[in-house]
Amino acid sequence: MVAVGSIKAVFFDLDDTLAITSGYDKIAWKAVGELAIERHEQVSAAQLIEDFRVLFGTKPWDTSHKINVTKWRAGLWLEALQKQGITDEPLSEALQAKYDEVRYGLFDFVEGVEAMVSELEGRGLEVAIITNGHHKVQRDKLEACNAYRIFHHIIVGGEEVFGGRMEKPDPAIFLKACKYVGCKPSEAVHVGDSLGSDIGGAINAGLAASIWINPQGTPAPEGKPQPTYVAKLVTETPAIISKIEASV
Q1: Pick the CATH number of 9-19+109-246 from 3.40.50.300, 3.50.30.40, 1.20.120.790, 3.40.50.1000
Q2: Distance between CA atoms of 81 and 51, rounded to whole angstroms?
Q3: Which class for 205: exposed (0-12), middle (13-18), buried (19 or more C-beta within 10 A)?
Q4: Which of 37, 47, 147, 231 could form a disulfide with 236 if both were Cys (CB 3.0 to 4.6 A apart)?
Q5: Which molecular-function annotations from GO does this UniProt entry contain (predicted)?
Q6: pLDDT tens track of the chain, all 248 residues?
């Protein structure tokens, strides 16, 4: 990627990197479907969730920030219910509350993350989280997994956007992390699951290397940003850092 000096810092994505967010989502959706059927037995839970996901994919929150994100997402559940002929605003609010209750109640780091961070810091490396997403939602996730106990440097992309700046893959957010930890871009590695946001962002910022978290082990598609290294689990990071340092 770039001429590599000694590695001084490792940056981590949060969702589906440090925590398996998609897995918690599936459990929360199941609980939401069960609640919907309990209130209206004619509901197709599978269709409800699919319709919600489509709506969520196009407008996950109010970009003007005039409507609270929880209320906004309750509105998406209401739209999804209405596609099945059901207009029940109290239920839509209950569905979002159930989703948050289940997801945040389960949300935690992948097993071994705390030991991994301790090992990296023991080797003299700085660590940080760089996560995209709505500022309140991401902060709630970070609180749920007690991230502040382990990570002293955390940058939330949604807060950057709220302040008129850019989130991943814009290089500025990575350069901000470098400033926080006191290293040059060529002395930092970024770890994440998104080829576009994480790997592309690391390349854009001129970082020393990128590690793509890819549990399926499938190759990165042609035309997408190409990672320097691939791992199935984030906890493989210390071993990969050792490889990088050995190659310098």
Answers
A1: 3.40.50.1000
A2: 9
A3: buried
A4: 231
A5: N-acylneuraminate-9-phosphatase activity
A6: 444 458 999 999 999 999 999 999 999 999 999 999 999 999 999 999 999 999 999 999 999 989 999 999 999 999 999 999 999 999 999 999 999 999 999 999 999 999 999 999 999 999 999 999 999 999 999 999 999 999 999 999 999 999 999 999 999 999 999 999 999 999 999 999 999 999 999 999 999 999 999 999 999 999 999 999 999 999 999 999 999 988 86
